[in-house]
Amino acid sequence: SIRAIVSFLIPESTLLMLRCNEAEKILGKKITSDDDMLKAAKELKNMGAEWVMLRGGQLADGRLTALLYGEGTKHFFTSYNIQGWKKHGVGSALSAAITTRLGMGDDVPTAIRNAHEYVHSRVVYAVSDEKQSLRAKDIYNEFISIVAEFYQKEHSVAFYADKLNITTRYLSQVTDKTVGISPKQVISNYLINEAKMLLDNSRLTIQEISDKLGFSSQTMFCKFFKAQEKHTPTEYRR
Length: 238
Hints:
This protein is an alpha+beta fold and about 240 residues long. It has 13 helices and four strands. The chain has a domain at about 135-238: Homeodomain-like (Arc Repressor Mutant, subunit A, Orthogonal Bundle). Helix 11 (about 205-210) crosses helix 12. Mean pLDDT is about 85; it is low at about 125-130.
């Protein structure tokens, strides 16, 4: 039962791995945004788990997200290859890879990162029929993961290129080759998706959403939203 899981299993967990739909049942609330994932992970950690990994957060069109939370760490892993991650056995392969890395002496964050990279490149993309090079795919997915981590503070392409240790020009080539749009539009799409999630599923004011998404003012947020969606946040919420 859920009560037994909360009382006996979670407090003994060094690493608690759950799908978002499983976390929803335990916590009795919906997980519909990256912010919801973070709040859910905090609640689960407060129940006694040392580390929490939430998987399977399909929170926006074409994007599948996982979150590792604990010990002052929050790291989002994001992929656009939903078909690959939902292939039968991928979850078990990830768990086995994590166990192997922990057995080799990795700490939890390092084990998760190494296992995720291994499964992502060796298993997930083994079922992909996309024609981009693995290098471009890996850079693109790492770009999205970094956006997921920093979108509330940083909106500039230069920041993300620097994090990836590549030039803005090369990042533009990667996103154009992978999804056919500029890195600036990738960031804008991410912000718009998160803005819509908050407008649809929270009682936050427009000003609070603007602050949460890292805009310098409500005016700038509304201008950005209207440029992307052809109507204001208030009109969208109606």
